[in-house]
Amino acid sequence: MTRRQHFVIILILGTLSTISPFSIDMYLPGFPAIAKDLHTSIAQVQLSLTAYLIGISVGQLLYGPLLDRFGRKLPLYAGLVVYMLASIGCALSTSIETLIAMRLLQALGGCVGLVAAQALVRDLFPVDQIAQVFSLLILVVAVSPMIAPTVGGYATEALGWHSIFIILSAITALILVGIYFALPDGKQPDTTLSLRPKAVLGSFFTVLKQPQFLTYALVGGLATSAPFAYLAGSSDVFMNIYHASAQEYGWIFAFLSIAVIAPTQLNRFLLRRFSSEQIILTTLTYQSIVGLFMIVGTWAGWYGQYGLIAVLFLFLCGQGITGPNATALSLAPFVRHAGSAAALMGSFRMGFGAIVSGAVSALHNNTALPMVGVMMICAVSGLVILLIGQRTIRYLASKNPVDEPMAEVLL
Question: Which SS3 state, helix, strand or coil, does residue 73 take?
C-alpha cells in the first residue's frame, strides 16, 4: 500500500466515521429553535438524540452480520441511502414525534458507516497497526465537533434548523461517491455465513465468549459514553443557564473538541513505549479523578461558565486516548467475525450512550449537575470493569495460554 493509498483510505474511513458525529453535533445549537418551532420542551428535543443513539445501537447489530455475509460495500450503499432519505424526512418534520421517528430511522441507516469503517481497518491493516490507524481515524472524526456545531449554529440562524438535515444528506452523497471510486472492497463476501437468527446469534455469542473482547467492549462502551452526557446536556447548560447564543455555543463546542484531537495524536507516541492496556488504565484513572473534582466543584459552585469549560476540557482529554485503544483491543482477536465484533462493540457504546443521554434528560434540574455527574459515573464504572476484566484475562491466559493467543500482546 503506497502512502497516497494509505492517506486516501484513512480519509474515506474517517469521513464514514463522521456521519454519526455530524448527525449528533450539528443540530445541537438548533435545540432551542426546534423546541420553539415544534411547540415542545428542550427535554423532549433531547429525546431525539436518545432516539438516534438507540437507532445506532440496534442498527449496528444488524449490519455486523450483513457486512460479514455480503462484504463491506453493498450494505454500505444500502445504509447510506436510507440515511439520506431519513435526513430529508427530519427536515420536513412538523412535530417532535415525527422528528424523533425520523432520527431513529436516520440512525438505523447511518450507523453502517461506524461498523464498516472499523471492520475495514481490521481488513486492510496488520494487527500491530490497528491502534495507530484508529488514532488517525479519530483525528479525522475529532474535526467534526469543531466544524459541525459551528456550521449548525450559523445554518440555524441563517436558514432555520431544517437546513441542517439537508446539509447532512448532501455530505453523505459526497461520501458515497468517494466510497464507490476510491475505497478498497476489503473482506470478500462469505457465503458460508448464514443470516438466520440462530446463526447470527451464534456469531455474536462466539465474539462475546472472547474475554478480551467483552472486557474492552464494555470498558470502551462506558468510558466513551461520557461525552454523550456532555452532548445531551451542554446546549441546555451553556445556552439556557449561561445564556450563550447558538454561534457562541458552537465555538465553545469547537474549543472543547481540541481536548479530543490533541491526545489522539499523543496516543500514537505513547504506543511506542506502552501497551494499549497500560494506557487505558492510566487514562481512566485520570478521568475518574478529574470527574470527582468536576462534580464536587459544580455542586459547591466553584465554577462559572469558563471554569466549567476548563474542567470539561481536562476531563475530555482522556477520551482521545481511551477510545482507539479500547477499539483496537476489542477487535484484535478476530478475522472472520470482525464485522460482528465491530457491530457488538459499537452497539455497546451507543447503547450506553443512549442510556446516558436519557439519564441526563430525566435528571434535568436547570443545573450542570446531571451532566457532570453522569460523566463521572461513566469514567469510574469503566475503571472498575477494566480492573476486573484485566485480572480475568490474565487468569484465563495462565490457565490456557494456547487458546488465548492475544494474551502475550496485552501482558
Answer: helix
Is residue 147 within a helix (H) or strand (E), and if so which, with residue range?
helix 130-159
User: Within 183-275, where are the H helices?
Assistant: 197-208, 211-223, 226-236, 246-270
Q: Quote the CA–CA distance of 25 and 147 in Å, as a whole number.
A: 9
Of the chain, the end-to-end C-alpha distance in Å amounts to 30
Residue 191, amino acid: T
- Give the Cα separation of 222 and 318 in Å (integer): 13
- Biggest distance spanned by C-alpha atoms of the chain: 64
39: left (phi over 0), alpha (psi -120 to 50) or beta: left
Residue 94's contacts (CB-CB under 8 Å, 6 or more residues apart) are: 38
Output phi, psi for 172, to 5 deg: -65, -35
Which whole-number Å values give the CA distances from 255 to 125, 145, 235, 241, 314, in the listed order? 32, 9, 14, 19, 12
How far is 87 from 166, CA to CA, in rounded Å? 7
Domains of the chain: 10-184+193-410 (1.20.1250.20)
What's the rounded mean pLDDT across residues 18-44? 87
Cα separation values, 335 from 104, 207, 340, 344, Å: 31, 11, 10, 15
- pTM equals 0.69
Mean pLDDT for 11-25 is 87
| 275 φ/ψ angles, rounded to the nearest 5 degrees | -80, 160
Confidence band, pLDDT 50/70/90 cuts, at residue 187: confident
CA torsion sign, 31 to 167 to 224 to 274?
negative
